[in-house]
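To: structure desk
From: M.T.
Subject: fold request, one chain
Message: Could you run this one when you get a chance? Sequence is below, nothing fancy, just the single chain.
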Amino acid sequence: MIKLYKVLVFLFLISSSAFSQVDYNKLIIRKNISQQWELDSIDKKGTFRLVSYRPIYFAAARWSSKRNEAPFDESGEFATDEKNIFNNIETKFQISFKTKLFQGLFFGTGDLWAGYTQKAHWQVYNKKLSRAFRELNYEPEIILNFPVNIDLFQGKIRTFGIILNHQSNGKDIPTSRSWNRIILNIGYEFNNWTVNFRPWYRMPDTEDENPGITRYVGDAELELGTHFGKHEFYTIINHSFSTFEKGNIQLNYVFPIHGHLRGHAQVFHGYGETLIDYNVSQTTIGIGVSFANW
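Reply: Done. Structure tokens follow.
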């Protein structure tokens, strides 16, 4: 625990001195939707280039208000009495990349992308568990994206996409969790704000390892992001159209430290921060560094 406190103190000190140390001319601000998806001709980069997709970050410390000590007992063959002893504090990191496979499909307008995101929760401070990974979530995607330019209110709808999404934790029964979705993505810009609305349809699964996941996690996601100078904020909200007492919200603040090094503070509340926790409600707070955002 002493080592953890040293990490937290270090991150606090470097974040508090960010304004005096940072070289603002060298920092990269949040990308707009055209830059993210290479919509306009000036932003086209060609195919098979590996670029960042979702945020890439490392949280040196993530505290949870509720440990999921025993994965929720499911029905039938997915039931488990396994007991685990987890710490409330762990590390968390996310990596995410995408590459364009084909450019100019469907009358020269559509682009086909492949994306991959991996999220890890690591009990690095838990010596009793041999510092094991508590949960790993893998999320490959195929994305068909179209540029649009539709005026709406004082902004513009800039993109429309269709996504085939698979997410799983790679575990065996009874702690295996996975689902498949067809996701629509609508991207909207207003001044320095970006908004992405992603409703989805969960594809049927005869062996449902996480029954009722849409009741807990939701069937749509809303992502809002902006920046003020070199300080970036983004929020991710998952909710259901049928029930309003569940879902989740994630708040993120990315701040300059020195050069391209940026700090990252994250607060999460609700269900489904990971697949193994899809029906567990908790509040988590994480602090670390950010390497890439939307």
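Reply (cont.): The first helix runs from residue 2 to 16. Let me know if you need anything else for the meeting.
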